[in-house]
Each structure stands twice: as structure tokens, then as C-alpha cells.
Write a structure and sequence with these properties.
By secondary structure, this protein is of the alpha+beta class. Among the domains are: 97 residues, no CATH class; 39 residues; 110 residues, Nucleotidyltransferase, domain 5; 102 residues, no CATH class. Strands 1, 2, 5, 6, 7 and 8 form a six-stranded mixed β-sheet that branches. It has a five-stranded mixed β-sheet with strand order 11-10-9-12-13, with helices on both faces. The protein has a two-stranded antiparallel ribbon with strand order 3-4. Helix 6 packs across helix 14, helix 12 packs across helix 13 and helix 16 runs antiparallel to helix 17. The protein is elongated and about 105 Å long. The two termini are 38 Å apart. 27% of the residues are buried. About 1% of the residues have low confidence.
């Protein structure tokens, strides 16, 4: 059986409707409080002595495709308490109706806040116009800031990482509650003093997951000496891969000799490859000059000042990390190279047919990209004098060395065997990298000390010594279930919000949208 409704049922609780009228496209509801008395906001004394009346017009949720406006009849009362400084006061409505001085009802304000959290300023304003909500973009942003929540005080396990205001120039710090999987706070910089002050105000924290940033580690040690620090496992694996790639780059001259690519015949190069080769020759001149200055005892700071090269570049030269002839960039074809090589070895030599086969499996690139790859393959198979072919770039060699032998074609397996036979130290580094990866993935804490002792004297020595300095956090990463993956995911969400607001949001607005959003 259908229920009967009165006009009061469509209003917020505590109001009584006097009249409903339609003015243009606006439904205007004249209403007043259902109570006969009101409490003084200063002393709390109830009064029923009315002094005067006035009207407020807060906006309400739209109804039936029309805007809704409440015309609230507000009464002023006399306070009869003898010592109360407020002789006359206006009645207060319940918080679920509207707030003092508010221009919207509480239920409309809640909708405004949620739209602002989800969309920001301009997108929320565009949607609000379609929903018949008279709200500007600045009001959406103010509603987010005005209702900012305080950070939790009962934290036990947190993750901490940096995020970029502007990549390479300015950074902030994001702190995440790993147990509740939510952002707790944003700090405007990544200075150790700022992080240390934040941690000292929360002594109940027991576990801190972080990357191997030395600044965060020092801040945690000083602020929370009893807290367990956990190194991020993904960063450990990424650092190990980078250390092995650096070892390959330092040994590129010896690798080229091992695989027979001692010299390059410019006649076999394409126009683009010739440009890269000429750049390589110019780099070699710079490399020889920097190495000569270092051999003469000139410190790095003076080399930087005299050559006007960056400090990072000088260090790369001295470490032997600038020896690649051809530096290959990633392309849309990179993930499909194993499939292409398999089809090529199977006898398919037509670029159009190769493209059609990849296209059937989801490849989104153009026919030209596959055709150029096929052309390069045919050129590479032409007969060339021994020792004049191109050597693969360091990144590809590192990938071949770390792949399982069962996943290599015959030519790559022969090439890897030549490299490892000529450079046993590099083969040892490869085995140590594989062991480290297996140790991290299977959480074998008891193997860490032996691995460090073995790796410190080889090509991965710098990486091993860095782990030794942070050994407690690395061991905790193999023992504890916590890691910084949730923090990295929240940073990705922060980047999305920052770009959505065109990079113009302040720290308080970013924090509000991250912390309050469900």
C-alpha cells in the first residue's frame, strides 16, 4: 500500500513548511523551525521570547529538474540570563539542516564536498551546472580545504617516499598508513629535518618502510631509534639490475673484443647509425681528456670546473659507463622483439606478413616500424669481413646475460658463452645478481651475509657496500611482510590528481584530496 507524504517529509528534519511556490524554474519553500524555543549560543539558556525575525535563503538539492531554494524564517530571541553578554541572539538550526552563515543546506554542502574531492574545481563546476547546483569552482575548492581532516595519531606501520613537484628540481614527501592503506600526510619537501620533526610528533610508530634514500633513513634513526626500518624490495631488485648494467657498461671494450666486434666499418652503417657513430667518436675524445686529468691527480670538482661538464657525467666517464657506440631507445616494437626473432628464425622474411601476424596478436604499431626492422635484419645477415660487425648495446647484452639459457636462440647463446668465457668476473657478477634476485623474491634472510661477503670484492662491490651500510633495513625487507608498494601506488594517484589540476594545486589542496577521498 502506498504511503502518504506531507510537505515536511521532503525537508531536512527539524523544519516545518509554511508555503511552496514555483517561481520560474525554482521551487521556493518557505519554512521555519518546528521548535518553539531556542538556546542561547553563549550561555545555553533556553528562551521563548521572540525579539524579531528575518529570512535566510540557503540553496538546497534540486528536485524534478528544478532548483530548490529554502526561505527560512529565522527568529531572534532575547536571552533572559542576567549575566549573559548576549542580550539578543538568532536561533541556530540543527547541523543536518544548515550551518550558521552558510549559503547551502548541509546535505547540499556534503554533495559539493564530494564532487570537489572527486573532480577538483573546473570539472566539478561543469558537472554541477548540469545538476542544477549553483556552485563555482572556487567554492568547490574551498569546501575541500575547509573540511580537511587531521592525520591519524594511532599509527603503527607507515611507508614514506618522495614525489616530484617538478621532476629533477623540487620534491615533496608522502606518508602512507600501510595497515589502513591510505595517505596520512603530505610534506612540502624531502628534507631530513622536516621528516624528523614529523616523526618525533608520533612516537607510537613501530615500522617504517622506505626506499634506500639515506636522508629518510637518517631521519628515522634519529627520531624513532627503536622503530624497524624496512627497505623496499622493488627498489632492491631495481638497484641490483642497475648495478649489473653498470658492470656491463664498464666492460664494453672487452666485450666487443670477446664477440669479435673490434672495429666498425662505416660503409655498413645506415645514415642514422653514422650520426650516432660520429657522436661516439666525439665522446671518446672527451672521455680520454677526462681520464687523463683524473690520472694526473686532478680532483673531480676541478675537472667539472675546467671542462664545464656536469659532475654526474664526469663520474660516468671515470666509471666507464659511456662506452656504448649505439644507444638504442625504447620503441613500440621492443616488447615484440622476441616474437619477431622467432618468426624470422622460422623463415618469415616479409615485413608486411610479419606486421600482419603481430597485428593479429594485438600489436598497435605501424607497418613501417616492422618493415624497417626486417630491413635491418636482412642487412645484418649480409656477409661482412670478420671483426667488422656491430656489437649489441650494453643494455641488450645485460638482458641476454640475465635471461635463462633456455630462452635464448642459438646465436645469442653462443654470444653469451663467448662473453662469459672471456670475462669470468662478469659471469660471476651475473650469478651473484641471479642469487640476489632469488634471495629477495623468496625472503631468504640467512643468505644475505654470505652474499655480501662474496659480492664486495667483485664487479658488484659498490652495490654490496651500499647494502652493507643499510644492512638492517635490507634484512628487515627479507623478514617483514611490509613493503613500499602501497606508497608507490598512492604516489601514482597523487600524480594523476596533480596533472588533473594542471600542476597548480597547493600542498593543502593535494593533501585534502588524497587524505579525504574514499
Amino acid at each position: 500500500m502506498a504511503s502518504q507524504f506531507s510537505r515536511r517529509d521532503f525537508l531536512p528534519a527539524g523544519l516545518k513548511a509554511n508555503q511552496v511556490e514555483l517561481v520560474g524554474n525554482t521551487v521556493r519553500i518557505h519554512s521555519r523551525s518546528a521548535k518553539a524555543t531556542a538556546a542561547c549560543p553563549r550561555c545555553g539558556t533556553a528562551s521563548r521570547h521572540v525579539h524579531s525575525r528575518y529570512r535566510r535563503r540557503p540553496a538546497d538539492l534540486p528536485a524534478h529538474g528544478r532548483k530548490v531554494e529554502l526561505v527560512l524564517l529565522v527568529r531572534r530571541f532575547r536571552c533572559r540570563a542576567p549575566r549573559c553578554p548576549a542580550k539578543i541572539f538568532a536561533e541556530r538550526f540543527p547541523p543536518d539542516v544548515t550551518r550558521p552563515h552558510a549559503r547551502r543546506t548541509s546535505r547540499l554542502q556534503g554533495l559539493v564536498r564530494h564532487l570537489g574531492l572527486a573532480l577538483g574545481g573546473r570539472p566539478a563546476q561543469a558537472l554541477a551546472a548540469r545538476l542544477l547546483l549553483p556552485v563555482s569552482k572556487d567554492t568547490f575548492l574551498r569546501s575541500i580545504r575547509d573540511t580537511a581532516e587531521a592525520s591519524s595519531s594511532d599509527l603503527r606501520v607507515i611507508g614514506i617516499d618522495d614525489w616530484a613537484w617538478r621532476k629533477g628540481q623540487r620534491y615533496g614527501t608522502l606518508i602512507c598508513d600501510l595497515e589502513r592503506r591510505r595517505v596520512i600526510d603530505l610534506l612540502p619537501d624531502r628534507e631530513p629535518a622536516t621528516v624528523e620533526a614529523w616523526l618525533q610528533a608520533r612516537p607510537g610508530i613501530e615500522v617504517v618502510a622506505r626506499d634506500r634514500n639515506g636522508g629518510y633513513g637518517g631521519a628515522v634513526s634519529r627520531a624513532l631509534p627503536k622503530a624497524v626500518q624496512v627497505a623496499d624490495r622493488w627498489h632492491l631488485l631495481e638497484n641490483a639490475s642497475a648495478a649489473f648494467l653498470a658492470a656491463v657498461q664498464r666492460n664494453m671494450p672487452a666485450i666487443r673484443k670477446a664477440i669479435g666486434a673490434k672495429t666498425l666499418d662505416p660503409k655498413l652503417l645506415t645514415a642514422a647509425e653514422k650520426l650516432q657513430y660520429e657522436g661516439y667518436l666525439r665522446r671518446q675524445q672527451t672521455n680520454r681528456m677526462v681520464r687523463q686529468m683524473a690520472d694526473d691527480g686532478v680532483p673531480i670538482r676541478r675537472i667539472v670546473r675546467q671542462t664545464e661538464l656536469s659532475r654526474q657525467l664526469v663520474r660516468q666517464i671515470l666509471r666507464g659507463e659511456r662506452e656504448d657506440v649505439f644507444r638504442i631507445r625504447e620503441s613500440s616494437l621492443t616488447p615484440w622483439l622476441p616474437r619477431l626473432e622467432q618468426e624470422w628464425a622460422g623463415g618469415c622474411r616479409n615485413g608486411a606478413e610479419l606486421w600482419r601476424r603481430l597485428r593479429a596478436d594485438g600489436f598497435q604499431g605501424s607497418h613501417r616500424v616492422v618493415g624497417e626492422w626486417a630491413t635491418r635484419q636482412r642487412r645484418a645477415e649480409r656477409a661482412a669481413p670478420p671483426g667488422t660487425e656491430k656489437s649489441p648495446p650494453a643494455r641488450k647484452i645485460a638482458r641476454l646475460l640475465t635471461l635463462g639459457r633456455d630462452h635464448l636462440c642459438k646465436a645469442d647463446a653462443i654470444q653469451v658463452a663467448r662473453i662469459e668465457a672471456s670475462l669470468p668476473a662478469l659471469a660471476t657478477a651475473r650469478r651473484l645478481t641471479d642469487r640476489f634476485t632469488d634471495m629477495i623474491r623468496n625472503a631468504r634472510e640467512d643468505e644475505l651475509e654470505g652474499w655480501l661477503n662474496e659480492a664486495e670484492d667483485g664487479l658488484l662491490g659498490a652495490f654490496a657496500r651500499g647494502l652493507r651500510r643499510d644492512q638492517a633495513a635490507v634484512a628487515a625487507a627479507l623478514r617483514e611482510p611490509w613493503s613500499n608498494g602501497q606508497t608507490e601506488g598512492q604516489i601514482n594517484r597523487l600524480k594523476t590528481l596533480k596533472r588533473q589540476m594542471y600542476g597548480r594545486a597547493n600542498i593543502d589542496l593535494l593533501k585534502a584530496r588524497l587524505v579525504q577521498a574514499l
